[in-house]
Amino acid sequence: MLVSTLMSPAAEVTLPAPANLHLFLLAGQSNMAGRGEVTAADQVPDERILALNARGEWVQAVDPVHWDKPDIVGVGVARSFARRYLETHPGVTVGFIPTACGGSPISTWLPNAYFEATYSFPYNDAIARTRRALTVGTLKGILWHQGESDSHPNLAPVYEGALRDLIARFRTEFGQPMLPVVIGQLGQFEAAPWGEATRIVDAAQQRIAADTPQVAFVSSNGLKSKPDNIHFNRAALIELGHRYADAFATIDE
User: Fold this and answer.
1) Whole-number Å distance between alpha carbons of 133 and 51
2) Would you state the pLDDT for residue 3?
3) Cβ neighbours of residue 234 under 8 Å, at least 6 residues apart?
4) Which of 29, 181, 213, 242 has a Cα at 20 to 30 A from 250?
5) 196 closest CA partner among 155, 151, 148
6) How many alpha carbons fall within 13 Å on the CB side of residue 154?
7) CB under 8 Å to 132, separation ≥6 — which residues?
8) Helix, strand or coil for residue 22?
9) What is the pLDDT of residues 181-238, one digit of tens each?
């Protein structure tokens, strides 16, 4: 099956059988979308790593994989996750479904919720794009990185319930009650120490991973930020992708 791309006719890809196209939904806010500096190495394609682009076409996944905020989007966790995943899953192709929206609070991941900063409906779009991908592949998991926008005194106390509900809703939508979910820890940057609200969000994420079947948590210990002290830098995002893959391996059945 040939699928056109945003690049050129030469960049068309051939999709494998659905059982061999392992799909991963990328959801959350900017540190999932990726803000790392893009180098030439990040734009070298790999025929085993695909992504569903903004037009709903399958393309070889090169950074930036997301397009939520085109002027600032960059390297994310996707490609390094895929490379590590493929080490233990030979013969398959990874297909990413990018849906992260920089700055999105978890309240915008409710059905029909609109997020003005990216002119989108994050949850609705994630569901629609994943359903499209499911016509040609098999959903293996969700990679989630979000919580910075909820690290405020009036939002953090309700974060845990909202994230639990979201995970349950995703699983119900796709008919997979044990769909694996990997949650990435918020950045721990020396120049931007956590306040109480961030600690509440972090504790909520860790509790959910500890007591919910098929949910794993990824530590951000030792990972560095860009000068903005908000976003992981390129090297950190590459390492974070490896950590996501290692965490996924613990819940992959």
Assistant:
1) 10
2) 33
3) 36, 37, 38, 39, 42, 74, 75
4) 29
5) 151
6) 1
7) 52, 56
8) strand
9) 999 999 999 999 999 999 999 999 999 999 999 999 999 999 999 999 999 999 999 9
Contacts of 189 (CB under 8 A, 6+ apart): 224, 225, 229, 230
**Paired tokens of 69:** 């905020």
> What top-level class would CATH report for the domain 2-249?
alpha beta
**Within 10 A of 97 (CB to CB), how many other CB atoms are there?**
24
Taking the C-alpha atoms of residue 52 and residue 65, their distance in angstroms, rounded to an integer, is 9
| Single-letter residue type at 236 | A
* Cis geometry, peptide bond prior to residue 64 (ω within 30 degrees of 0): yes
What are the respective helix, strand and coil percentages of the chain, to the nearest 5? 40, 20, 45
Q: pTM for this one?
A: 0.95
Give domain limits for the chain.
2-249
